[in-house]
Specification:
Blueprint (H helix, E strand, L loop, with lengths): L9 H40 L10 H7 L6 E7 L2 E6 L7 H6 L2 E6 L3 E6 L3 H13 L1
Length: 134
């Protein structure tokens, strides 16, 4: 049945007939929209609440060895999700070991290496500086 505006008294009767015949379709659509909205909200909320577990620095010597040796490391700085390390010889780094330690990306520059990770880079920097002075 097609509803046409301006048909006078029949419009109310036609609308009531439409609701009686298609009420179940409207209910299904409303329930589907509600369920879809709930699903989307939980998916988005789940992604936001999924916190990255900050791995601890168990043995800083693993980090130092992955970067060559103590003598190879000149300077260490932490900037958010990056660990910037100035090296004497960047060819001495062990990429596989750094990846195993939790580094997501390694950016090589002329005299420094930037390690991108979701780890506690501030703590790694502090522990590395302590380990370099020992």
């Amino acid at each position: 049945m097609i509803l046409v505006a301006g048909t006078g008294n029949n419009f109310k009767e036609d609308f009531e007939a439409f609701l009686q015949n298609y009420a179940w379709v409207l209910c299904v659509i409303v329930v589907a929209i509600i369920l879809l909205t709930i699903l989307i909200v939980f998916l988005i909320k789940g992604k936001k609440n999924k916190k990255v577990e900050k791995k601890g620095v168990n043995d800083i010597n693993e980090w130092i060895n992955a970067l060559g040796t103590k003598e190879n490391i000149v300077e260490v700085n932490a900037i958010g999700s990056r660990l910037s390390i100035k090296l004497k010889d960047k060819e001495k780094i062990n990429r596989e070991e750094l990846t195993r330690l939790g580094v997501k990306s390694i950016v090589m520059m002329s005299d420094k290496v930037t390690l991108v990770s979701e780890l506690d880079n501030q703590k790694i920097m502090e522990e590395m500086k302590k380990g370099l002075t020992e």
